[in-house]
Structures are given as C-alpha cells and as structure tokens.
Amino acid sequence: MTDLADRTVQLYRIMGSTEAADYALREALGIIKTAGSIDELRKKLASFAADVIKARPTSALMLNTFRDILMALTNLEGVEPAEARRLLAEKVESWIARARESVEKLAEIGARRIPDETRILTHSYSYSVVRTLEKCVAQGKRIEVVVTESRPTGEGLATAETLSSKGIPVTLIVDSAARFIMKDVDLVLMGAEAIAANGAVVNKVGSSLIALAAHEARRRVFIAAGTYKFSVETVFGELVEIPSLPPRAVLSPEEAEKLGDDYKAWFPLMDVTPPEYIDAIITEMGMVAPEAVPLVLRELYGSWPPRLPDIDELLERLSG
User: Fold this and answer.
1) Inside any domain, residue 251
2) Is residue 253 part of a domain?
C-alpha cells in the first residue's frame, strides 16, 4: 500500500473520529516539541496536517482543529522558536481537552433524554455514544444495546466488547439484520464524523440505511456529536469526500487471487444520512434539531456565513 493508504487504514482503525483526532493531535504535539527553527516547525506541521486531513477527509473535528492550529502558526513570525513551540503546544493541548470535555457534557445531556428500560441500537464505534450509554448506567437506568458488526472494518465488535465490560447487556448482529430487528428496539443512537450545514450526518457506511429503517419503523434517531464536528466547508456548498479502503485492507491475497483479475472491489467507509431521518443531534450545547445547525454555526463563529480561511490556502501558504 501507499503511505497514504497506510495512514488511512491506521486512522480509521482507531475507530471513532474523536480518538482519531486525539491520536493525530498527540502526534502533532511531538512534531511541535522537537522542531528546531520556525521554518522547520511550519513545514513539518503543515505537511503532517495535510496528510491526516487527506487520510480522514470526513472528520470535521480533524479539519476544524488543524485549521485553528495552522491559523495560530501563521501568526508566529518573529517569535522565538521556544516560545512558538510553547504557544502551539498549548493550542493543541487545549483542543485535546476541549474535545474530551465536550463529550462529557453531551453524554450527560444525552443520557438524561434516554428513558429507563430502553433498548438502543447503535452502529460502528463512537466514543460519544459509549460515554452516553455509560452515563445512563451511572444514572441507574436499565438499558440494553443492539450493536451492528459495522463492516468492512468491524468497529461494532469493539463497541460490543466495551459495553459488555461495563455490565451493559449487548446483542451483536450482522449489519443486514438492522431492519429486521428495528421493530424490537426503542431508539437509534449513533455518532458522527461530520454534521453538514443542512443537518445531514456523515458517519460509518450503513448509517443511512439504519436511519431509513428507523424512519420506516417510527423509531427516533439521535446523533451524539460535539459542535466541533459541525462542518464549515459545507456552508459554501463543498461536499464531504467519502473515502474508501484499499481492497488489500479487506481482502487477503488468497481471496483476491480467487476472484481473478476482472473483479472490482469498492469498500466505502462512510455515507450521508439526510436530515429528515434524524430527530436530534446531541451536543455539548444541548439537543439540536438538524434544521438548527446554521444557527449553531453562527453562534460558534459570530457570523453567517462563518468567515474562516480555506484550509488548502493555509496549507499552501505554510508549505511554500
């Protein structure tokens, strides 16, 4: 595989976008602390940011955090290298802390909205979802969780293992059984890679089918996602790029050989759920209706549309 393919597999196998961003930010922290000159810091950090954004383009958290860090980097002309490293390290550490604090707040809000004796279906792996369910248990609520395998990378297995270790009754199902079992669950709770300006949700492939099945069965769909996952780029009509895994990340050489040279393999990792299939987005600011996302973005950035530099322009300026 190419280096980019390796990094793509690496960042998606970390599972949740919060963990992936946390992992990338801690790598960035290492780059910051070991860089010598300002020029070295600028080029290495810009190159790393470009790599991780390209490897996990669906992660609004990754994009938002690195945009903010790169904006800070552009303002360090004339600053001593030691001071520049300190300032940037503080910026990265504040993002790591903010993401974790936001998850704790939204999980508390979400748990309060889930009734006692509720059977919940979830898909893939989301740190925000796991923390919400853990807080349900801490509040004394009796819940049961149905977890999909979440192919092709199988994050649902990690979700099932994590929840089971917390004493939460878990039923693991194949993805294709989601519609069949929907009538036997009370609500759907999923995470998100990104929330588009129109309230659409980008999440692990299969999420849109599950939301459609829930809509048909008249089951509520909640999305647990901090406001740092709200995508500014989509305000201007840009589409979120949907990545796919290289075939060799899923098929063994023996399996590929059996299929022959004429087959085509496509393993998309994400899909987009329309806002009409989502009842609410659980954020650290409270429960947000999909149609209210523009209002939240205006509150976060102080204007509509938000006035933020283009990430590609920032990367080009810093790499030059």
Assistant:
1) no
2) no
